[in-house]
Amino acid sequence: MLEISIKENLEQVKARVNSTLSSKGKTIDDIVLIGVTKTLDIDKVNEAISLGITDIGENKVQEIQDKYERIEGNPRLHMIGHLQTNKVKYIIDKVDLIHSLDRESLAAEIQKRAEQSGIVAEVLIQVNVAEEESKFGLRVEEVASFAESLPNYPNIKVKGLMTIAPYEEDPEKTRYVFRKMKELYEEVKSKNHSNFDMEYLSMGMTNDYEIALEEGANMIRVGTGIFGKRNYN
Ligand SMILES: *Cc1c(COP(=O)(O)O)cnc(C)c1O
After folding, report:
1. What is the residue-averaged pLDDT of the chain?
2. Are 82 and 58 within 8 A, CB to CB?
3. The ligand 1 atom nearest the CA atom of 221
4. Mean pLDDT confidence for 43-56
5. How far from 189 is each of 40, 95, 134, 183, 197, CA to CA, in Å?
C-alpha cells in the first residue's frame, strides 16, 4: 500500500486554499481548515495535530467518545455528522462546535445539556440545499423561519450555517449550492437574532472546497485530501 504523507497532503491543501483565496486578498489564516479524521485511528489524528492542524472533525458520537481522551494537544473538536437527540449528552462537553443543528427538538436537548454542563454550546444550522433524500438539514426555505422561531436559549449560540453539497465529479456543478448558502448566510446574519453570532459558513470538502471558498466559505472540512482514502471496515 502506498504510504500517505499527511504532511505533504496538508501542504498541498494549504497551497490550494491560498491560491484560491488570493484573488480575495485572503489566505488560509482567514479561514478555518478542519481536518476530518472520521474512521482514522488516534495516531493519525495526533500526527495531524503535531503537523499544525488546529481543528478536527468527526461525524460519529461513538468515535468522539473513543478518541477524546487520547487526543494530544488542544485542537478544537467539531461534530460534523447527524446528531441524535439522545446522544447529545455524550459530546456536549467535548466538542467546540456542532455543525448539524437541523430541528427544534435537538436545539432543546442541546440547551438542556449545555445548561447542565454550565457551558454555552456553539452550533451551526445545517441546510440541505439540494434537497437530497440521503442528507439531513433544513430546506433553504425553512431556514429563516427556523432561525426566527428558535427560542432564545441562553446556553446556545448560533455561529453560522453548514451544508454538504451533493457529490459531483465536476464540482463546478455544485457552485449554485454554495452561492445559495452565502446568500442565506447574509440574510440570516442581517436579522441580528439575539442568540446568533454569525461568523462561520461551513462548506466545501475535498472534492469541492475550492468552489466553496470562491463562493464565500470560511470553514472547510477536508478528510480525503489530507489523510487519503478512508477504509470503512
Ligand atoms: C466525511 C465528511 C467530510 C470530509 O469529506 P472528504 O470528501 O473526505 O473531504 C466533510 N464533511 C462531512 C460532514 C463529512 O461527513
Report:
1. 96
2. no
3. 10
4. 97
5. 35, 24, 28, 10, 8
Of 199, 185, 115, give the one whose Cα is nearest residue 147: 185
Name the residue among 79, 100, 78 with its Cα closest to residue 163: 100
Q: Rounded mean pLDDT of 17-21?
A: 98
Q: How far does residue 207's CA lie from ligand 1's centre (Å)?
A: 9
71-107 per-position pLDDT tens digit: 999 999 999 999 999 999 999 999 999 999 999 999 9
C-alpha–C-alpha distance, residues 111 and 157, integer Å: 10
Give yes or no for residue 164 CB within 6 A of ligand 1: yes
Pocket test for ligand 1, best of 13, 53, 55, 59 (most atoms within 8 A of CB): 59
Angle of helix 6-21 relative to helix 42-50, nearest 10 degrees, comes to 50
Instruction: Assess whether the C-beta atom of 78 lies below 6 angstroms from ligand 1.
Output: no
Q: What is the pLDDT of residue 2?
A: 58
Cell of 78: 467539531
Q: Which residue, by CA, sits nearest to atom 13 of ligand 1?
A: 80
Per-residue model confidence (pLDDT) at position 232: 79
Amino acid (one-letter) located at 227: F
Give 177 Cα–ligand 1 centroid separation in angstroms: 16
CA 176 to CA 135: how far, in whole Å? 17
Which atom of ligand 1 is nearest the CA belonging to 226?
A: 9
